[in-house]
Design brief:
mainly alpha; about 70% helix; about 425 residues
């Protein structure tokens, strides 16, 4: 049986975004929703330790958060600003049954569009949505952004204050507002998936809950706005990447690199759906970054083996990606493909052009280590492996890199 602490950790990991969204819908204030849910979580640790975990823990938190909101509005004398919300909350509280609600309305798409309002800059919108939707800590998001935690925390505070000051509505916008909001929303959904696909820290390498949530949101966006190439591209990219899920880890949790994966474990149903979406998106012309990344994933999916991969096609796709976006991570990925399409030396030359921009990015050093290892440069490889290990917070990835380093040291005698 889960302890109260374990259950709170589970809810934060799996249900926090739904709770934040439902609370924001009730309270009309994102910051108030987060504060009251945190108060409710603290209360749960005390109450559940005495009385046990309730049948519907998330429902209990939502109910307590509502009461905390009523107390805060009254205590802080902000009833005028929240007059309508207070009236509604009091009515809900009076009509609430003793039991916790079993069903929590799903308002997460509204939450994403609220956090991605054009009044916020893209970086703040992404950080705020990851915090609210994915339940990621400030430190986790700061690592993803290569920011100091203090800087990121200030950014989150300013973003919530701006939403409040600008009276940004908690709603899914109409068709006229989609173009200016969609790019930020797609970025957020992708980053939620990325954290689930390769968690930044912890014992588990993956977080399936976040992967499933991102795919669900991508499908929802595609149904709400059909015919948009970049939405199709994002959904395709997530499906094609997710298709390799069962092959990425050994039974003991150890990481399996792409070249060693058993492709019979790849999910052919997800691959077929993803490939069809890529073809459909490419036919629309002028592919964007998500469509091109999905095309790269499709090339991998179509290959019968690692060796049979059309690496030159991938190199060319990354050329297009660099023209569509100045993201140096695309150049890093291209270098990996170039090492197989051409030579390791060609890949190392490519990395030399972006090293100053990615020196604080752990995958850069892991890639550099692997290239030097394959080229027989054991000293340089060992140095890069140590640098990558020092920058790695995920235990499974650290273990993989440490095994590569140990094997390298054994070979060098």
């Amino acid at each position: 049986m889960n302890t109260p602490h374990d259950e709170i950790a589970r809810i934060v990991r799996h249900e926090w975004g739904r709770l934040i969204a439902a609370s924001t819908r009730l309270f009309g204030d994102l910051g108030l929703a987060e504060d009251c849910l945190q108060d409710a979580a603290e209360a749960a640790l005390r109450h559940w330790a005495r009385n046990g975990v309730p049948a519907s823990p998330a429902g209990w938190l939502l109910q307590v958060a509502r009461r905390k909101a009523i107390d805060r509005i009254r205590r802080e004398k902000i009833a005028l600003r929240h007059e309508q919300e207070l009236e509604r909350l009091l009515e809900l509280d009076q009509n609430a049954t003793a039991a916790e609600p079993e069903e929590i309305p799903d308002e997460r798409l509204r939450l994403i569009f609220t956090c991605c309002h054009p009044a916020l800059d893209r970086r703040s919108a992404t950080a705020l949505t990851l915090r609210m939707l994915g339940g990621l800590t400030t430190a986790e998001i700061a690592r993803a952004f290569l920011d100091a935690p203090e800087t990121l925390a200030q950014r989150l505070v300013r973003a919530k204050a701006k939403i409040r000051a600008a009276h940004i509505p908690f709603e899914t916008p109409g068709p006229e507002a989609w173009p200016e909001r969609l790019a930020a929303v797609l970025d957020v959904v992708y980053l939620v998936y990325n954290e689930g696909h390769a968690a930044m820290h912890g014992a588990a390498y993956t977080r399936p809950d976040l992967c499933n949530e991102a795919i669900r949101l991508a499908r929802l966006l595609n149904s709400l706005k059909p015919g948009q190439a970049e939405i199709e591209g994002l959904l395709a990219l997530l499906l094609l990447t997710e298709s390799r899920h069962k092959a990425r880890l050994r039974p003991d949790g150890a990481l399996v690199p792409l070249e060693a994966q058993d492709r019979s474990l790849w999910d052919r149903i997800l691959i077929a759906e993803g490939e069809a979406l890529v073809v459909q998106a490419l036919k629309r012309g002028r592919p964007g970054a998500f469509v091109l990344q999905a095309a790269v994933a499709a090339v991998h999916a179509m290959a019968a083996s690692f060796e049979a991969t059309d690496w030159m096609q991938i190199v060319l796709l990354y050329d297009e990606l660099e023209r569509a976006s100045a993201n140096p991570v695309f150049a890093l990925n291209q270098a990996v493909a170039l090492s197989y399409a051409d030579t390791v030396d060609a890949a190392l030359l490519r990395l030399a052009t972006i090293g100053d921009r990615l020196d604080g990015y752990q995958p850069f050093h892991a890639c550099l280590a692997d290239l030097h290892r394959r080229d027989g440069n054991q000293r340089e490889a060992a140095s890069a492996y140590r640098r990558a290990i020092a920058m790695t917070d995920n235990e499974a990835e650290r273990r993989f890199l440490a095994e590569r380093l140990a094997a390298l040291c054994e070979d060098s005698g």
